[in-house]
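Design a sequence for this backbone.
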């Protein structure tokens, strides 16, 4: 078995630290992150304010903890939503084939061709900057990749003998997708 490199462990440590800080922010922060103290503005790091304060006198450590929480929420929701939609589209394309598969894959190509940052800016300009719009913009970026990977994997599974046997005994495409294709695609989604 191949050993995991130093970069993996550094990345795991960084992500683990961010997750720990975000989880801690749910129950505790050193100071109220929204409290404004003009008298303490631009204070240097100290025992009271570990990372100092900003221009409004808010504690930077508390702001970072709450910001990590928000970042993790956006990340998990957007990847989850994008993965769910991409999986559904990839399975649909593979199960139906024909023009449905072509239409889904051309939509995925449009998603690949459209600059992600431009889409996020357009979404923010049209609907305003918000948590939900950030989730939708990132999910939009994830969907084409997941759809393409799921469709390619599902097409390989549809060609297997046990799937052909299920078709021969009269199982519907939906039942085959649910019982045979999706469970075999699921391990790919975890990566």
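Sequence:
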């Amino acid at each position: 078995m191949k050993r995991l490199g130093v970069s993996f462990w550094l990345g795991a440590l960084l992500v683990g630290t961010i997750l720990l800080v975000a989880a801690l922010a749910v129950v505790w922060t050193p100071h109220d992150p929204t409290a404004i103290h003009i008298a303490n503005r631009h204070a240097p790091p100290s025992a009271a304010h570990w990372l100092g304060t900003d221009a409004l006198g808010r504690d930077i450590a508390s702001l970072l903890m709450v910001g990590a929480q928000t970042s993790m929420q956006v990340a998990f929701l957007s990847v989850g939503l994008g993965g769910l939609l991409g999986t559904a589209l990839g399975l649909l394309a593979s199960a139906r084939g024909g023009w449905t598969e072509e239409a889904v894959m051309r939509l995925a190509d449009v998603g690949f061709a459209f600059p992600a940052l431009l889409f996020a800016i357009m979404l923010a300009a049209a609907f305003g900057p918000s948590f939900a719009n950030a989730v939708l913009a990132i999910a939009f970026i994830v969907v084409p990749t997941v759809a393409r990977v799921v469709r390619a994997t599902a097409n390989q599974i549809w060609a297997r003998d046990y799937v052909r046997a299920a078709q021969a005994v009269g199982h519907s495409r939906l039942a085959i997708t649910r019982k045979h294709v999706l469970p075999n695609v699921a391990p790919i989604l975890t990566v």
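The chain has one domain: 6-190.
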